Amino acid sequence: MHAILLYFLNLFRPYPQKMTVLFLQKEALCLAAFAKGRSETYEIQRYAAAALPPPLSGKKRWDDPGAMAALIREICQHKGIPLKALAIVLSHGDGFLSQLELPELPEKEWKDAVLWEALQYVPYEEGTFGPVLEVMGKKGSPLSALIAAAPLVELEFFECLADMLSCCLVKIEPMALSLGRLLPETERGTALVLSREGTGGTLTAYEKGLPIASETWDTLPSAKVYGPYYEKEKAAGLSPEEEAQRWKSQVKHLTSYLDEAMELSFTDLFVWGEKEAEDAFLSTLAEVTSLAVHNFPSSGFGMAAERFEQAHWKLDRQKILPLLGAAQKGSPPYYLDLQAGRDKEKWLPRRFIEPLTRALAAMTCVLAVFLFSSHLYLVHEKKQLLEQKRAISLWKDRLFQHRRTEQSIHTLTELLSEAEKRTLSWHTLLTELGTSLPSECVLESVEDRRSSKGAILEIRGKTRKRQPLFIWTKDLSRLPAVKKVTLGDMEGKDSQDKTGKALDFTVLIHLEKGRTHDGTD
């Protein structure tokens, strides 16, 4: 669960582009501001170092975080160092880091077993420190564990310090991890690193940039064999020669253990310290270990060598090295956060909530922008649809009017066509009537009557003589379209005929059903 929370913590809280690293030692503190360069390597921008006043030095460092925060804020304001993202480097005396080989046990069993075994090596009393255990390797291959620990009083101090400085606490890690990131790529296989602090030091063995074993001494041999460095040993009854011999035996034991038990062969030793190592110490170290002694190269500072030589802090390059290593991100197991071991049940969820809240807030903002954009888009689409609807309504009215006009034209066309047909059908018959009508007869009206049996043409007129009328009706009956011709009663035929007056007559012409009046077959 812890690993999952850390994964999401790093996922939601990206590593900062700019960061300030604090290295708090017993008698001094170092601060450096870093910014990520084009090569994704952090370059040092500003640096400051100061000696701690007596009330804040030694073990008193952890007693008053408020006074320490005021001192750091004053230094940062004077040097122009920002305080937004803060990373902490623990010296060898303030933290513990070691690597252990894991036994071949089921996963549920070896987690508890390894944690119990690892805690046996932590030089702190039970319940007073926060451990972090990082398992390395994959299933089916040899596994090992990297254990880191620091006293709870230190973790609480740095957390309180970050709150007082109003900055984000990025990480707290041991100096051994920071220095391991600065080893040259060619030395990442196996290498020894000696860290000198005050009169003592720590010898750490690295494999692939990770510490695998270390040994710490309160006092290292020096050319000043009778100096103040050996007052404690003299009080313990050990002469400088005896102390040096004891130190040599411990170094031999460490190197022989690494050579034999872990099958590692070391040829190079990198030295870190506030001051350049004395010749007597280096000669003794080379005699015991047969190693070539080196200082950390200046190329590890993330900037060109010429630029570093021009910097005013170049004389403090040994102090800057742990700061530079801590600025580099790395990835698990190269990145251990000791705060995770302080109080995982309370602290880690609280730290997880902050980036999760930011992530949810960012997602909410993105969702709000998306919804607002969608709303604007839908409003725009709705407006366009309404305009199209209005345009369609206008065209619909025009289309309806056009259809009405078209229907009227169609009806009129049918009427005209029917009238044309009827006119054409009457043309021949009327022509026959006009040409064959006797001169004694006069037509008054011609009426067309329709019935289910066919069309009947009723002709009314006047005649002065009957005989021409009879002949005319016979001629009409011979027309092809005529079925029969009937002569109606003639009113006043007797009296009018004798007196010579015109007689009214009615002629009914019965036409063939379905035949036209044009007189053709």
CATH topology of one domain: Nucleotidyltransferase, domain 5
Number of helices: 13
CATH architectural category of one domain: 2-Layer Sandwich
Pattern of helices and strands: HEEEHEEHEEHEHEEEHHEHEHHHEEHEHE
Please state the CA-atom Rg, rounded to the nearest Å.
Answer: 58 Å
DSSP strand (E) fraction? 25-35%
Give the termini distance in whole angstroms: 108 Å
Give the biggest beta sheet.
5 strands, mixed
Strand order of the largest sheet: 3-2-1-4-8
The number of E-state strands comes to 17
The pLDDT mean sits at 75
Helix percentage: 40-55%
* CATH-defined superfamily of one domain: ATPase, nucleotide binding domain
The secondary-structure class comes to: alpha+beta
Low-confidence segments: 223-234, 343-348, 493-497
Structure description:
By secondary structure, the chain is α+β, with helices and mostly antiparallel strands. Among the domains are: 153 residues, Nucleotidyltransferase, domain 5 (2-Layer Sandwich), CATH 3.30.420; 99 residues, Nucleotidyltransferase, domain 5 (2-Layer Sandwich); 81 residues, Gyrase A, domain 2, CATH 3.30.1360. Helices cover 42% and strands 25% of the residues. The chain contains 13 helices and 17 strands. It has a five-stranded mixed beta sheet with strand order 3-2-1-4-8, sandwiched between helices. The protein has a five-stranded mixed beta sheet with strand order 11-10-9-12-13, with helices on both faces. The longest helix has 90 residues. It comes from Acidaminococcus intestini (strain RyC-MR95). This is Fimbrial assembly protein. Keywords: Membrane, Transmembrane, Transmembrane helix.
